[in-house]
Amino acid sequence: MSLCILYDIYRSGGLIIGFFFTLQISDLLGRDTALCNTIGMVKDAAQKTFFDILKTRGEKLLRYPPPVAVDLSPPPAVREGVSLTLEIIENYNSMMVSASGEKPAFDPVLSALLDPIIKVHESSNL
Questions:
Q1: In this structure, are residues 110 and 58 in contact, taking their beta carbons and an 8 Å threshold?
Q2: Residue 35: strand, helix, or coil
Q3: What confidence tens digit (pLDDT) does each residue in 23-67 have?
Q4: Is-contact 47 10, C-beta < 8 A?
Q5: 15-19, 45-49, 105-109: which has the minimum mean pLDDT?
Q6: In whole angstroms, what is the distance from residue 58 CA to residue 63 CA?
Q7: CA–CA dist 68, 84 (Å, integer)
C-alpha cells in the first residue's frame, strides 16, 4: 500500500470519526457500539502503521547514509523522501476541515518525514 494512501486513510479516518461518526453515528447507535469501536481501531491502526513506516524509512536512511554524489545531486533516497513529503503536504492541504476550520496537527508528520533527511545531511559534513 502506498504511504500516501495510508496517510489518506489515517487523516480521513480521523476526520470521519472526529466529525461524522462521533456526532452522528454515535448519537444514533451509542459510542460503545461495535461499528464505532471498529472505525476507531481502523483509524488507530492506520496511524500506527503510517508512523511506523516513516520511522523505519528514517532509521534505514540514517543507518545506511547514501554517498555524496560527485555532482552533489541529492541521492535517490533523499529525492524520494522530498517527493513523498510534497505529495503528503498536497494531500494535507486538500483535506476536508471541520466546521470550526481546524485541521489536525501536521508537525508530527513533517518531523517524521524530514528529520531523517536533515540528520543525514548534517552528518555528511557538507
A1: no
A2: helix
A3: 566 667 777 888 777 777 777 787 788 888 889 888 988 898 888
A4: yes
A5: 15-19
A6: 9
A7: 21
Q: Are the C-beta atoms of residues 61 and 120 closer than 8 Å to each other? A: yes
Largest CA distance in the chain: 63
Burial of 117 from C-beta contacts in 10 A (0-12 / 13-18 / 19+): buried
Q: What is the pLDDT of residue 50?
A: 82
Grid cell at residue 64: 545506511
In the block, which residue shows the cell 541529492?
74
Binning pLDDT at 50, 70 and 90, where does residue 99 land?
low
Residue 19: pLDDT above 70?
A: no
| Cα separation of the two ends of the chain | 35
Of the candidates 56, 78, 84, the one whose C-alpha atom is nearest the C-alpha of residue 122 is 78
Torsion of CA 118, 105, 97, 58, to 10 degrees: 40
Question: For residue 2, how many C-alpha atoms fall within 13 Å in the half-sphere facing its CB?
Answer: 8
Distance CA 117, CA 100 (A): 34
